[in-house]
Write a structure and sequence with these properties.
InterPro entries: HTH-type_LysR_regulators, LysR_HTH_N, LysR_subst-bd, WH-like_DNA-bd_sf, WH_DNA-bd_sf. Residues 1-58 form the HTH lysR-type domain. This is LysR family nitrogen assimilation transcriptional regulator. One of its GO terms (molecular function) is DNA-binding transcription factor activity. This protein is an alpha/beta fold. The chain has 3 domains: 3-69, Winged helix-like DNA-binding domain superfamily/Winged helix DNA-binding domain (Arc Repressor Mutant, subunit A, Orthogonal Bundle); 73-160 and 265-292, Periplasmic binding protein-like II (D-Maltodextrin-Binding Protein, domain 2, 3-Layer(aba) Sandwich); 163-264, 3-Layer(aba) Sandwich (D-Maltodextrin-Binding Protein, domain 2), CATH 3.40.190. Helix content is 45%, strand content 23%. It has helices at residues 3-15, 18-25, 29-43, 59-83, 99-116, 129-138, 181-184, 197-208, 222-230, 241-245, 278-292, and strands at 48-51, 54-57, 91-97, 120-126, 143-147, 155-170, 189-191, 215-218, 236-239, 252-256, 263-271. Strand 3, helix 5 (99-116) and strand 4 (120-126) form a beta-alpha-beta unit. Helix 1 crosses helix 2, helix 1 (3-15) packs across helix 4 and helix 5 packs across helix 11. The longest helix has 25 residues, at 59-83. The relative contact order is 0.14. The model has no long low-confidence stretch (mean pLDDT 90).
Length: 297
Amino acid sequence: MTLNQIEYFIQVAEHGSFSKAALVLGVAQPALSRQVRALETELHETLFLRNGRGVELTEAGRRLLEHGQGILHLVAQARDDLSAHRNEPVGQIVVAMPPTQARLLTLPLIEAFRASCPRARLVVMEGFSTHLTEWLVSGRADLALVYNPEPLAALEILPLREERLVLLSPAGAAPPGPLTLAGLSRYPLVMPQRGQVFRKRMEDAAAMAGVQLRVDWEVSSVPAILDLVAAGLGHAALGEDALRAFEHPERLAVTPFADARVHTTLCLVTPALKRSTPLTQRTAALLMKLVREPRPR
């Protein structure tokens, strides 16, 4: 398996077509097809299903795509590291963030990065905290902001800021506060799927209090949850930053919880075994400054 074969495979997968991938790569289509066939032969797997509209990935192809993207990212990092000036950030860095933090921080981060690292390139990825640690371990991301990350030997974790969890309700329909967990059980909730950090924190706190939460709707998108709450379909227990990222905060009301333990911790997480570069250090410093800046309540 060669790097060229991996790159050719990824281009075909991303474009869904051998002809389009050949144009992007600047190679003849028969040569591209031969390289992909050689890769399939070596792996003893069929990577693509051919159809009249192009190609689509098999299950084996989807697994190889994730590995291949991580491999090419690591190769690019190695090249950047070897060619970098001693203290000048160069190359590409991938930063991953939860949806709310991505909405709040992407613009100021890019503005600060452009001024601080003019010879480098920044990629921002968005996902739930459970996915972000997987991306760090697999090499798809270099830095991540993660809520309450699980301690792993492969990761270095730096707590940056605590964030209160609050109850978000339709404007005019908020319960009187501070709200106890027993009182929360009377309200229909719109929550992310099980395992997502805000839901886990609320369910853990409710279990300690002997309370069963009433989850009417499960939605894996924070903006969609806020839209449903604003439309009167329920209430949501989320970090208070979620309201700051919402385009129509006047449509929501906030109720604090009486239990001060209902909070999350936002952490900066990096791979423990990956060598720190000037670009990594500079980007981490920019993120820490942005996260630690006071935010209006």
